[in-house]
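Lecture 7 notes: from sequence to structure.

We start with a single chain of 253 residues. Read the sequence below before looking at the structure.
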Amino acid sequence: MGGSFPPVTDVSLSRMAHRSTVSRWFIRFNAGDSWLKRATLRLSYYAFIILPYPLRRVASAAFIISVLAMKRLTGVERQNELTPLEEVGTLSFWRVPKVDVSSFTLTIDGAVGHPLVLRYDQLLEMPAVEREVRMDCVGGFRNNTVMKGVPLSHLIDLTEVQDTARRAVFHCADGYRETIPLVELLKHEAFLVYSVNGEHVNKLGYPLRLAIPGKYGYKWAKWVQRLEFVADDRKGYWERRGLPERANVGDIW
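Now the structure, written as tokens:
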């Protein structure tokens, strides 16, 4: 779901200025990192996780259905202009890790013929793509941004991923883990991002995050430090807890 988004112009800025108080609060809440946001996320997590797994699945589906309706009602579904950097939403339930770029490395291993450990400057020297992409969070907000990074297809070729590999596991500096089938990574032209709207922003996953347009935001792993190719069908962090495993935008199961 790459594409071309209208730039932020005087007209779009005027439209933003006339948003309702609730809309403005929602945008500030999702773009910020306040104690209220952190507490709200943790409380919602604990309320969700105490439910038995079957009930979590039902609760997740009901929540997603209500969010999809809310997005249509409030106009989020019609947000097509480029999102200003200060309004880009992000969720981090536990913390925003501090990653030292000077010592940062990306490890690529598992079912590969040529494992690699890449420094940040080496990643910058690789072939890059810069795309206008849309990310819809399962929590209700939408980001339309310009992201730049290294295509996963290039890393797959470079490390000679074996035919037995079925999935890529993204291990993150904050302890998060996401898994995605190789066929989905290639289909959605996924790439590892190091700049958003031309900037390097820690809370948005810098120095390296995944972009996989067409998937819900929880698939867009942030602060990626290891990429492991595996032959099994293990699930990611939120999928193990009841969220949709395929996670195409609009999926509820």
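Helices lie at 10-17, 21-31, 35-49, 53-74, 120-124, 152-158, 182-187. Keep this in mind for problem set 3.
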